[in-house]
Design brief:
- This protein is mainly alpha-helical.
- It folds into 2 domains: 53 residues, no CATH class; 129 residues, no CATH class.
- It is built from 8 helices and 3 strands.
- The protein has a 3-stranded mixed beta sheet with strand order 1-3-2, with helices on one face.
- Helix 2 packs across helix 3, helix 2 packs across helix 5 and helix 6 crosses helix 8.
- The termini are far apart.
């Protein structure tokens, strides 16, 4: 069994061996995010805000994006064309984007992120990590995946963290392996939706 620290050390060594910059910031967020994995040529970087309340969970999530890039390159690269369409539309209120492109972007995001979460859960099942709270992680995953539907509906990102104690109790602790479940926003319960909406105000 790994400790969180020993897992981080091994993952960082692997990332460095593939020429990624590893930036672990002593902050709660960076540019409004808990972290990211980027593979743009010349800007290969792995970034995590280590003061975030769920910094390790963010770390292992971004590490599994790295594994997508490393082992399933075609899938990873096929996702890049439409992934940022929704984010760009939210960021720029003047930008006009067709609903078809927005829905395609949403589906692309959910496909990539759902696959990433499957990898995280398989990793911690096969390689247990000390004090990793799988129940809490699955609740956070549900909050994270469902929030993308609200991002599109409201044309904004959450103002407050969606992993807060105000939200997670309303989220299911069951991760559904079938992507189609998360593509259908009607599967988001009324109480879970309201809990998420409060973080957009």
């Amino acid at each position: 069994m790994d400790t969180k620290q020993s897992f981080i050390i091994k993952a960082v060594r692997e990332l460095l061996s593939h020429n990624f910059s590893v930036l672990l910031h002593n902050k709660t967020s960076i540019e409004g995010y808990g972290g990211w994995f980027g593979n743009d040529e010349g800007e290969e970087e792995f970034v995590v805000a280590m003061k975030h309340p769920m910094s390790f969970e963010i770390f292992i999530h971004e590490y599994c994006h790295f594994l997508q890039w490393k082992y399933d390159r075609d899938f990873w690269e096929s996702s890049t064309e439409y992934y940022d369409v929704l984010f760009d539309w939210i960021k720029n209120p003047q930008l006009e984007t067709s609903i078809e492109d927005l829905n395609r972007s949403l589906n692309t995001i959910l496909s990539l992120e759902h696959d990433c979460e499957k990898r995280v859960l398989k990793l911690v099942q096969n390689n247990p990590i000390e004090n990793f709270d799988t129940d809490k992680y699955k609740r956070a995953v549900n909050a994270y995946l469902w929030s993308y539907h609200l991002n599109l509906e409201l044309r904004k990102r959450p103002v407050n963290p969606i992993y807060s104690d105000r939200v997670l109790p309303y989220m299911s602790n069951i991760f559904v392996n079938d992507l189609s479940y998360y593509l259908d926003k009607n599967n988001l319960s009324h109480d879970a939706r309201n809990a998420l909406l409060a973080e957009y105000e």
